[in-house]
Amino acid sequence: MAYVINDECISCGSCEAECPTDSISEGDDKYVIDPDTCIDCGACADVCPTDAIHPE
């Protein structure tokens, strides 16, 4: 089960640096997680300042 980023994302980029599989990239209005490469580790959710990242 991949993690997803909801609309609470403020595009700070802290999650992207924590992802061990480089599954997070900057989207049009928020960061997005590639579900095909996400390993469900939760490292991104741990550093998100707005709690915008949750398991799908």
Structural summary, described in words:
This protein has a single domain, classed as Alpha-Beta Plaits. It is 18% helix and 21% strand. It has two helices and four strands, in the order E-H-E-E-H-E. Strands 1-4 form a two-stranded antiparallel sheet. A two-stranded antiparallel sheet has the order 2-3. The protein is globular, with a radius of gyration of 10 Å. The mean pLDDT is 97.
What is the helix content? 10-25%
CATH class, please? Answer: Alpha Beta
CATH architecture: 2-Layer Sandwich
Structural class: alpha+beta
Rg, rounded, reads 10 Å
Mean of all residue-level pLDDT scores: 97
Main attributes?
single chain, 21% strand, two-stranded antiparallel ribbon, 56 residues, two-stranded antiparallel sheet, Alpha-Beta Plaits, 2 helices, alpha+beta, 4 strands
What is this structure's SSE topology?
Elements: E1 3-5, H1 14-18, E2 24-26, E3 31-33, H2 43-47, E4 53-55
Antiparallel strand pairs: 1-4, 2-3
Short recap of the structure:
With 56 residues, the protein is α+β, with helices and mostly antiparallel strands.
